[in-house]
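--- STAGE predict ---
source: upstream dedup step, 1 unique chain passed
mode: sequence only
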Amino acid sequence: TSQEVATATAGVGTSVTWNVRNDFGAVTAAGQGGTLGSALADRPSITNEGVLTRTVAVPAGATRLDVSIGGTSDTGADLDLYVTGPSGEKQSADGDSEEAVSYTNPTAGIYTITVEGYAVPAGTTTFNYLDVFTSPGLGTLEVNDTSAVLLAGATRTVTGTLTARTAAAQGRKLFGQMRFVSD
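--- STAGE serialize ---
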């Protein structure tokens, strides 16, 4: 589940809470937080053989960059995703419309993201676009949770503190993720 948090002052923590439900077999698990990210989520459109280009400035010290596309309104569409890093090195995703490119500890600089409408039978399609980089400089999501058994069908409350160190750049939102992980 996602929730939106309005943080008024940089450096001041905001309490967040999740209700976790186990729909599978019993598991021993705990909530984990991490570094905040800066995300741009959009639903643009692209034409057959059209090209959409975006850039994202990844700061020094970033720990991850993820770019993904998917959810085309024209289910027969084939879109291609390419990401070119600051050194000019180009990465591509697989050959359908649900594509993603990821970098661990990306080099600081400008990344150019290109989406190509390789084949769009309807002539135009909308799609989900997301680019997000994580960086300790943006802030943290602290989750102080201990491993415990969660039986099938059971729910559990997990709490944390979201602390932003800076505001998101224009057009972007800060993004945090609580993961519920087993031993």
